[in-house]
Write a structure and sequence with these properties.
Largest sheet: none
CATH class of the largest domain: Mainly Alpha
Number of helices: 11
Helix content: over 70%
CATH topology of the largest domain: Butyryl-CoA Dehydrogenase, subunit A, domain 3
Strand content: under 5%
Number of domains: 3
Distance between the termini: 49 Å
Number of strands: 0
Order of helices and strands: HHHHHHHHHHH
Shape: elongated
Structural class: mainly alpha
Length: about 300
Amino acid sequence: MIEAYLDELSAQLGRLGVRGGRRRRILAETEDHLRSDAGATQRFGDPAEIAQSFANDLGTAGALRAPLWAFAALAVAGTFYVAMYLAWSGFIVSSGQSAARSPSGVVQSLAGATPSWLGLLATAVLVLAPQVAFATGVLALRRALRLRGRSWVPAAEVRVLRRRTATAIGSGLATMGALALFAQQFGAQLPGWSGGVLGWGVVGAVASATALVACGAAGLRTATVRVAVAGTAGDLIDDLGPVVPAPLRGRPWAIAVAASAGVGVLVWCAAIAASDPYDGALRGIAEAAACLIGFAVLGRFLALRS
């Protein structure tokens, strides 16, 4: 009877995505409990319900933990990205070229050195992917912190956390790949002394990508576990909480427009400080438009809007 119960529990756990070492530990602990109490089989409950309880526990814990791992890895990758940006900025200034004080301005300045489509692709990814990684990483972390301490969260919330975390890690990996490709594509255009910078660029990109993969794997080990807890997922307004002004509550598109305009103004102000107001205005408009496009494309997928 105990063996039959354990076989059924094992099958139900596998159906819900609980496999490997976790399933073996659950079965071992269950067997130990059942064999120590002759009447425990009847009191333990239906194997399907017990398996679902374990899945809810594991799925919730994993979904809440994954953004923390992802954000830690993104912090490492982001630090390296900024360091490489500063190094390449220094090259542009020292070589007498016009240095725009933004990551997009730096890579655009170097991108003009070659017509290679791979170089242009690396440039485009370096402009867009870090912003997506940062935004989704912060949003995933904010959602995880808002839900922390709960034993179970609705399946809809688990899906949102997994999507945001996966998007953040994927964008971070794309950024590191673009950095390595950028270094490879533009190495011939840079002076000999910059070889060390490019070499460290490739090494750092690989190391950061490894950290992203490792932390992503640690945080997403329960990504296949099927949580079955009723409830809905919140949106961007729930994530921001009291930060949202009263007139904007219930209006996610208005928040997106206001945030995009703010980003555009910040880019423009930075350009003004660098004595480049006209190009800065164009970059600000482009950044604001990119934010709105991202909100339109990813808004529902990432639960930014209903």
